[in-house]
Each structure stands twice: as structure tokens, then as C-alpha cells.
Amino acid sequence: MPTFLEFEKPIAEIEGRIQELRHAPGSSAEVSKEAARLEAKHAKLLRQTYAKLTPWQKTLVARHHERPHTVDYLAGLVEDFVPLAGDRSFGEDRAIIGGLGRLRGRSVVVIGHEKGTGTDGRVKHNFGMARPEGYRKAQRLMLMAERFGLPVVTLVDTAGAYPGIDAEARGQAEAIARAIDVCLGLKVPLVSVIIGEGGSGGAMALASANVVLMLEHSIYSVISPEGCASILWRNDGTAQEAADALKLTAQDLLELGVIDAIVPEPLGGAHRDKGASLARVGDAIIGALDSLAGLDGPTLKTRRRDKFLAMGRNGLA
Fold first, then answer.
1. Where are the domains of the chain?
2. pLDDT tens figures, 56-100
3. What is the CATH number of domain 59-311?
4. In angstroms, rounded to a whole number, what is the distance separating the alpha carbons of residues 314 and 207?
5. Backbone angles phi, psi at 312, to 5 degrees
6. pLDDT digit string (tens) for 46-56?
């Protein structure tokens, strides 16, 4: 059973009751009938709940610790993955991982944020919050991909870039800006998927792509709801109101033209059926790469830059 979020308490109660009935000694036809009734009720309630999630609830789902991470997508989708480490300047940053592999037979460079699993894993990967060397490593891998004519796939899942003093001292803002510039200037296809939380410039550094996809219950925003609430109202207790105002859901961003498509998640979120989630993301990435096939380098670069420049014009000539 998955770990339940606060708003899923009614669902958790039904699942708990179903488990009790399934493990009841000497189960009868009556017990089986009751279990079937509860399973139907559970499916209906799950469907109704996830059909009307608020932006804050989607934020909680996007942050669910059992949600598939970049390492899961690499293990499930990328064959013969060869990780490449270091920025060739300062060191290795495990908050961003990347390397070469084959995605359904197609050679690609894959780069993604990794939040880590468990306490030790989260500390090791710094909760997916990269330092400058992480973004410089990403730049190195993207430029390597361009040199060998390989498409780039990025997986975004970060609350934002690491805000520590050491990161600022090593040029955090410059590293992010340069990563965005490298993204915009690439002459190979670049496809990005927001798989969980896409926060601030730390996400944009990997997501300035030809095609930007979002999982159905992921979020993408200039700042976290808590950060927004703290700045605007000096009270992070108003994070739910901030989430409403930020327009951070995939549905909002598709309507605004910030992303290109939404990847549907299994009922109840990606964490409830990781295999199905991986397959759907793989299908979406291949579809995006197919749509870019045949375009030459200058066209890919021009379309990508024009796409992002158009977002700031608000429909004005």
C-alpha cells in the first residue's frame, strides 16, 4: 500500500478495510461480496478525488516521496546507461545525474535531477537541489550531445537550485543562466519532462527545450508556494492560497502555453503504478523526438528560441 496524503484519508480507510477482509481467516462468500463492494467504492472515490485536486493537493502529489525519480526512469527506460560525472572544473554534484544510453533503441543523452530515496539518499543527492557544478555538468553533457549529434532528454524534479553560501560563492546564478543559454543554443533535439516538482531557475536550467512535457500531477513554478507565501504575506501558512495564485499545475501551464503537452498519470498518481508511469513517459518522449526528426540544427535552435521569446510577448505584436 502507498503512503497516503492528508486528503486521501477516506481512501486509506477503505483500503485498510479491504486488506482486513482479504486476510480474514476462513473468508466466506459474504466477505468476498463485501470486499468487492468496497473495491468498487474505493475505485470510484479515488477517481473522484483525483479528478478535482486543488493546486495545493497537486503540489503534495508532485512531492510524494514514492513518486518515480530520475533513477527509476533511467532503470526502466534507458538501456546500457553510462553515467558521466563531474563538471571538469570543480567536482561532482549528485543532485543532477546524466549520461549516455539507448531509449527504446535510440541513442540519447539523458540528464535529470535526482532527489534521492530515504534519509541517506536524500542527503547524498542534496534533495535534488543542485550546486553550480551540477549545472555546469549538465552544460558539458548537452554540448557533448551536440558534438555527436545526439538528442537530449532532461527529467526535471527539483524544488530549486541550492541556495547555500558555497553555491553562491561558486557562481550559482551564472551557472544557471549559462545552462539556459546552452539549452536555447543547442542544434540537436531537446525534450524535457517535468516528472515531479519543477522549481524556479533550477528547473529552467534543464527545461528550456523544444518540447516541454509535464506529468499530469506535477508542478512547475517560478517559486514554491511556501516561498511565495513567505514573501508576499510573510506567512508560509498561506501556502495553499499561494499555490492557487501561482498557476503551477500542468493544466494551467498548458492553457498558458508554457508547456506543450500533459502526460496522463495512472489513477491515483504516478507513485501508485510506477511501471505504467514509466511506459507513458517513454511513449511521450519518443513521440516528441519523432516530431523533431528531420529538422536541421539551425531550425531546432531557432524554433526553440522563438518559442520562449514568444512567451514574454503576451500575444502582443
1. 6-52, 59-311
2. 999 999 999 999 999 999 999 999 999 999 999 999 999 999 999
3. 3.90.226.10
4. 20
5. -90, 0
6. 899 999 999 99
Report which of 6, 55, 7, 53 is spatially closest to residue 229, judged by C-alpha positions.
55
Instruction: Dig out the grid coordinates for 129 from the structure.
Output: 537541489
For residue 183, what are the contacts with CB-CB under 8 A and spacing of at least 6? 142, 190, 205, 206, 207, 208, 209, 304
Phi, psi (deg, nearest 5) at residue 151: -70, 155
The residue type found at 154 is T
Using DSSP bridges, classify how beta strands 152-158 and 106-113 pair: parallel, antiparallel or unpaired: parallel
27 pLDDT band (50/70/90 cuts)?
Answer: low
Predicted TM-score (pTM) of the model is 0.91
Is residue 187 classed exposed, middle or buried when 0-12, 13-18 and 19+ CB atoms within 10 A define those classes? middle
- Helix (H) or strand (E) run with residue 25 in it: none
Distance CA 229, CA 243 (A): 9
3-state SS of 228-261 is HHHHHCCCHHHHHHHHHHHCCEHHHHHHHCCCCE
CA angle 136, 102, 63 (to 5 degrees): 60
> Alpha-carbon distance 150 to 190, whole Å?
9
Per-residue cell: 7 = 486528503
